[in-house]
C-alpha cells in the first residue's frame, strides 16, 4: 500500500512540476508579444519547458564597447557582431530537462558559446540553428550565452554570394525568434508525414531521442522499474481534423525499448477515413498527436500539423488535387520599413491576409522562409515555392565543389525543417541562373533533393533556349522586359518546351512611387499597372501555367541602384504596396482585378515628360564655336591643326625640335577633347540609366557604395555629369603626360613636360569629328541600326588617338615605334592584370561580366 502511495505521489509531483515550469511561463510570454517561435513550441508540445530569449541582449560590433539591443533585431551594417545574454535555471529546470538551443534566423554565421564554452558553429542566415546543449555546460542559477557572428559575404565562398543591386538586403544579427527549449529525458525529436492523398493513406516517421534514463525528470516508479540503461516505451498517435477534440483515427501502440543516450526511428502507418484535401480554397489541416508512454506515465507529447494534397503537371498544365490549377502568384520579400526582416507574427499575418484579398494563390521566395510565414500559408491557403539563397550566381561559381556543398547543406536544412508544410509544393535551387553552363550544379542538387523529398524542384532562368537538366521545372525570368519582347520570349520558350508548364518566375518593373503622370511615363505607377496587364494578357495568350508579380511590397538592398537614385537608392520600388505597408498602389487594384476576373480600373494615359537634354547640344555648339574662333583668329593654330592631322610626323618632329606651341591653345584643345568624350559618355549613360544590365555592370566596376551613389547621381544630372567627366578626362590626359615624361629619363633626348603635354593633347584631335554626333547622340541611339555604327566610330577614334600618342612619343623620344608600342602594351598588361586580379578575387568580376555578356548576347 505504501509503495502504491509513493508511486502516485511521484507521478503527481512530476506532472505538477511540468505544469508549473512550462505552462505558466508560456502564458506570460504569449501576453507580451506575438512570438512565432513561442506559438510553434506551444503548439508542438505542452510537455516541454521554455526560456524565451527574445528580449534585451548586450550588443557590440568590436567586442569592447557594449550597449543593449532588443532581440530579434536586424543589423543593417555589414561586418562582425557580438551578442551576449544571461539567463537563470531553477533547480527543477536544471535537473529535470535536457536543453536545446533554437535560433530561427542568425545571419550569416556565428560561433555560439554557453558559459564561455564553445557549443557549435552555425552557417546560413535563413535556416534554423538547432543544437542540444551538453549537460555539463549548464548549471543551476545564472548562466550565459554568447554569439560571435558576422554577416559579411564573399564573392565565391558564401551562400548567398556578395549581393548585386537587385538582391535583398543582407541584414545581420538575430533577426528571428530565439529560445532555449527544455526536453524531457525521453523526447520526440521530429515527426514527418508522408503520403496522403484521396486515399487517406499516410506514413509517419517518428524520431525519438533518449537522454539519461536515470534522469530526475522521470518518476521514481519509472526509474526503479527500468532495467539498467533501457526503458520499455509505447508510442501512440492520434490524428485530428483541424482543432477538433475527437481523433478521426488512432494508430495501434508501437512497443519499443529505448537505450540511454540513443536515438530510434519508427514508422507508423494509418488511413484517414474520408480525407479532406488541402487547397487554397479550403485549407483543411490535420494534427498528428504523438505521445511516449512508459508504465502508464506520459513522458513526452509532440504535435505536428499537416495537410493532404497532390501537386503535379499534366503536360503543360499544373494540377492541384487532380484539378487544373493556374498560378496567380506574388514574389514575397520579407522586409518591412519599421521591422526590416525581424518581422513579428502579426505583421506576417497581415501580409498573408492582404495577399489573399488580392486574389493570389501562391507566393515565391528567393530564400528559406520564416516557419511562422509557412504556418500562416498553411492556415490561410497559399501555395509556397520556397528556394535556397542562390540568386544570379555565375556558372563558374555555381559549379565549384565548395558552392555545391554549401547549396546541398542549405537545401537539406530547408527541406528537413519545412517538410510537413502542405503549402510548399516545390523546392527552388536557384533563380536567374545560367542553366546551360551550370548543368552539373542542377543535376547534383536535383538528385540530392529527390533523396530527401518527392516534391518537384525548379529554378528560374534567363536563357530560354537552354535545356533544363536535373530539375523538374524551369521558370522564365522576365522582370523589366519590354512588353513586345515579353510575349515573343514566352512564345519562343513555348516552342522549345511544348509539353512543360510555362511559368514566369518574375514579371514587373521599377517605378518612382510618387510619379502619377500616366502610363506614357515609363517610371509612373500607371506604367507599372499597364505593364502588369500587358504581361498577364501575354501569358494568357501563350497558355502559361501562371506567373509571379514582382513584388508584393517594395524592398531594400545593400547596394545603391541607379534606377531609384532620385528617391531612395537602396530601395526597389517594384511593389503593389509600399515598403511601410501604408499605401496600396493602383497596381494592387489592377492585379486584384486580373486575379479575380473583376473589371480593371481605369489607367490614365498621361504623357512622357522626359525629353532629350538640351545641354548636350549647347555644350557641343560652344565647343564648335571655340574651334571656329581659334581657327579664325590664329594662323598658327590653323597651321598646327592641319599639320597635326595630315602630317603628324612633321608636327611631332617640330615638338622634338622645341618649336614653340601655344600652351593656351593646347589646353583649350585638351578641354574640348575631354568635353567631347564627356558628352558622349553622358548621353549614353543617361539613355540607359534605367537599364538593369547597366546597373549590374556599374555594380561590378564600382563596388563601393558611396562612389557608386555619387556616380549614379551624376548620370541622372547631365550638366554635372558633363562637367565632372570633362574634369576626369582632362586629368587623365595630364596623368598620361606625366607617365610619358617619367619614361623620358631613360632616353638620351632632352624632353620637357611641355613637350609630352603637347603630344598628348594634340593627339586628341580626331575626337573633333564626334562633336556633331555628340549633340544628337541621345536621339541617334534610339534607332537600333545606328547603334553599331556609332559604337564603331567611337572605338575607332579612341584607337586612333592612342596610336597618335604612341607615334608622337616615338618621334619626340627619337626611338623606334615598335619599342614604344611594346613598352605601352607591357605597362597596360601589368596594370590590367593587377586590376583584374583585385576585382576577380574580391568581387568575382570575370565570372560576373561573363554572365552579363551571355545574358546580353545569348
Give the secondary structure arrangement, pairings included.
Elements: H1 2-32, H2 36-44, E1 49-52, E2 56-60, E3 67-70, E4 80-89, H3 91-96, E5 98-103, E6 106-107, E7 109-114, E8 117-123, E9 129-132, E10 141-150, E11 173-174, E12 178-183, E13 186-195, E14 201-210, H4 220-225, E15 230-241, E16 249-250, E17 254-259, E18 263-271, E19 286-294, E20 297-306, E21 311-314, E22 317-320, E23 323-325, E24 327-331, H5 345-358, E25 362-364, H6 371-380, E26 383-387, H7 395-398, H8 401-418, E27 424-433, H9 439-452, E28 457-461, E29 473-477, H10 483-496, E30 503-507, H11 525-541, E31 546-549, E32 555-556, E33 571-572, H12 586-596, H13 615-633, H14 635-646, H15 648-656, H16 663-687, H17 692-701, H18 705-716, H19 718-743, H20 753-762, H21 771-780, H22 784-813, H23 817-843, H24 845-857
Parallel strand pairs: 24-25, 24-31, 25-26, 26-27, 27-28, 28-29, 29-30, 30-31
Antiparallel strand pairs: 1-12, 2-3, 2-4, 4-10, 5-9, 5-12, 6-11, 7-8, 7-10, 13-14, 14-18, 15-16, 15-17, 15-19, 19-20, 21-22, 22-23, 32-33
Helix pairs in contact: 5-6, 8-9, 10-11, 11-12, 13-16, 13-21, 14-15, 15-22, 16-19, 16-20, 16-21, 17-24, 18-19, 19-20, 20-22, 22-23, 23-24
Amino acid at each position: 500500500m505504501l509503495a502504491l502511495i509513493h508511486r502516485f505521489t511521484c507521478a503527481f509531483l512530476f506532472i505538477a512540476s511540468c505544469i508549473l515550469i512550462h505552462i505558466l511561463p508560456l502564458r506570460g510570454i504569449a501576453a507580451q508579444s506575438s512570438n512565432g517561435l513561442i506559438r510553434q513550441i506551444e503548439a508542438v508540445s505542452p510537455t516541454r519547458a521554455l526560456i524565451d530569449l527574445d528580449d534585451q541582449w548586450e550588443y557590440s560590433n568590436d567586442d569592447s564597447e557594449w550597449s543593449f539591443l532588443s532581440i530579434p533585431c536586424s543589423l543593417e551594417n555589414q561586418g562582425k557582431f557580438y551578442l551576449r545574454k544571461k539567463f537563470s535555471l531553477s533547480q527543477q529546470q536544471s535537473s529535470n530537462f535536457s536543453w536545446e538551443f533554437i535560433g530561427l534566423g542568425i545571419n550569416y554565421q556565428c560561433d555560439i558559446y554557453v558559459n564561455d564554452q564553445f557549443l557549435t558553429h552555425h552557417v546560413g542566415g535563413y535556416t534554423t540553428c538547432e543544437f542540444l546543449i551538453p549537460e555539463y555546460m549548464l548549471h543551476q542559477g545564472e548562466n550565459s550565452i554568447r554569439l560571435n557572428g558576422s554577416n559579411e559575404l564573399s564573392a565565391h565562398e558564401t551562400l548567398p554570394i556578395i549581393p548585386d543591386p537587385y538582391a535583398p538586403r543582407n541584414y545581420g544579427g538575430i533577426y528571428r525568434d530565439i529560445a532555449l527549449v527544455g526536453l524531457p529525458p525521453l523526447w520526440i525529436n521530429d515527426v514527418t508525414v508522408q503520403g496522403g492523398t484521396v486515399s487517406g493513406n499516410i506514413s509517419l516517421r517518428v524520431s525519438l531521442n533518449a537522454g539519461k534514463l536515470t534522469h530526475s525528470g522521470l518518476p521514481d516508479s519509472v526509474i526503479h522499474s527500468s532495467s539498467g540503461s533501457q526503458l520499455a516505451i509505447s508510442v501512440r498517435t492520434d490524428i485530428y481534423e483541424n482543432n477538433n477534440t475527437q481523433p478521426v483515427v488512432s494508430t495501434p501502440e508501437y512497443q519499443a525499448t529505448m537505450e540511454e543516450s540513443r536515438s530510434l526511428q519508427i514508422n507508423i502507418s494509418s488511413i484517414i477515413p474520408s480525407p479532406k484535401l488541402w487547397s487554397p480554397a479550403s485549407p483543411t489541416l490535420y494534427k498528428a498527436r504523438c505521445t511516449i508512454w512508459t508504465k502508464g506515465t506520459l513522458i513526452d507529447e509532440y504535435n505536428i500539423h499537416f495537410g493532404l494534397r497532390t501537386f503535379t503537371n499534366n503536360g503543360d498544365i499544373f494540377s492541384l488535387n487532380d484539378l487544373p490549377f493556374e498560378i496567380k502568384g506574388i514574389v514575397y520579400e520579407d522586409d518591412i520599413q519599421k521591422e526590416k526582416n525581424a518581422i513579428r507574427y502579426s505583421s506576417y499575418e497581415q501580409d498573408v491576409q492582404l495577399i489573399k484579398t488580392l486574389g493570389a494563390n501562391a507566393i515565391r521566395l528567393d530564400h528559406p522562409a520564416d516557419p511562422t510565414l509557412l504556418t500562416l500559408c498553411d492556415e490561410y491557403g497559399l501555395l509556397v515555392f520556397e528556394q535556397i539563397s542562390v540568386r544570379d550566381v555565375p556558372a563558374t561559381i555555381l559549379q565549384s565543389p565548395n558552392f555545391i556543398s554549401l547549396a546541398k547543406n542549405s537545401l537539406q536544412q530547408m527541406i528537413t525543417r519545412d517538410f510537413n508544410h502542405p503549402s510548399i509544393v516545390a523546392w527552388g535551387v536557384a533563380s536567374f541562373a545560367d542553366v546551360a553552363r551550370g548543368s552539373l550544379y542542377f543535376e547534383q542538387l536535383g538528385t540530392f533533393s529527390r533523396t530527401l523529398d518527392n516534391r518537384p524542384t525548379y529554378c528560374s532562368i534567363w536563357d530560354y533556349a537552354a535545356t533544363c537538366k536535373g530539375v523538374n521545372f524551369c521558370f522564365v525570368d522576365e522582370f523589366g522586359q519590354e512588353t513586345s519582347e515579353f510575349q515573343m520570349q514566352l512564345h519562343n520558350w513555348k516552342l522549345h518546351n511544348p509539353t512543360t508548364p510555362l511559368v514566369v518566375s518574375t514579371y514587373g518593373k521599377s517605378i518612382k512611387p510618387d510619379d502619377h503622370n500616366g502610363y506614357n511615363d515609363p517610371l509612373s505607377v500607371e506604367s507599372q499597372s499597364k505593364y502588369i496587364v500587358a504581361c498577364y494578357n501575354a501569358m494568357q495568350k501563350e497558355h502559361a501555367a501562371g506567373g509571379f508579380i514582382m513584388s508584393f511590397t517594395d524592398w531594400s538592398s545593400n547596394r545603391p541602384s541607379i534606377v531609384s537614385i532620385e528617391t531612395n537608392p537602396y530601395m526597389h520600388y517594384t511593389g503593389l504596396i509600399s515598403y511601410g505597408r501604408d499605401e496600396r498602389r493602383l497596381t494592387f487594384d489592377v492585379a486584384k482585378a486580373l486575379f479575380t476576373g473583376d473589371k480593371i480600373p481605369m489607367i490614365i494615359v498621361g504623357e512622357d515628360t522626359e525629353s532629350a537634354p538640351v545641354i548636350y547640344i549647347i555644350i557641343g555648339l560652344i565647343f564648335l564655336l571655340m574651334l571656329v574662333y581659334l581657327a579664325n583668329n590664329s594662323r598658327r593654330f590653323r597651321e598646327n591643326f592641319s599639320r597635326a592631322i595630315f602630317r603628324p610626323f612633321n608636327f611631332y618632329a617640330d615638338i622634338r625640335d622645341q618649336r614653340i606651341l601655344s600652351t593656351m591653345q593646347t589646353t583649350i584643345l585638351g578641354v574640348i577633347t575631354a568635353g567631347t568624350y564627356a558628352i558622349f559618355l553622358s548621353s549614353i549613360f543617361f539613355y540607359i540609366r534605367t537599364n538593369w544590365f547597366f546597373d549590374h555592370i556599374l555594380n561590378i566596376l564600382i563596388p563601393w557604395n558611396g562612389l557608386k551613389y555619387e556616380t549614379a547621381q551624376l548620370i541622372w544630372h547631365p550638366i554635372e555629369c558633363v562637367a565632372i567627366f570633362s574634369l576626369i578626362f582632362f586629368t587623365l590626359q595630364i596623368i598620361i603626360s606625366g607617365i610619358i615624361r617619367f619614361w623620358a629619363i631613360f632616353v638620351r633626348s632632352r624632353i620637357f613636360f611641355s613637350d609630352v603635354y603637347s603630344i598628348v593633347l594634340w593627339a586628341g584631335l580626331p575626337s573633333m569629328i564626334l562633336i556633331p554626333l555628340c549633340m544628337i547622340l541621345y536621339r541617334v541611339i534610339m534607332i537600333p541600326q545606328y547603334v553599331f555604327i556609332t559604337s564603331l566610330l567611337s572605338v575607332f577614334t579612341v584607337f586612333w588617338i592612342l596610336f597618335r600618342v604612341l607615334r608622337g612619343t616615338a618621334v619626340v623620344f627619337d626611338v623606334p615605334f615598335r619599342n614604344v608600342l611594346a613598352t605601352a602594351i607591357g605597362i597596360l598588361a601589368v596594370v590590367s592584370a593587377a586590376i583584374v586580379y583585385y576585382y576577380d578575387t574580391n568581387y568575382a568580376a570575370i565570372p560576373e561580366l561573363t554572365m552579363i555578356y551571355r545574358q546580353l548576347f545569348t
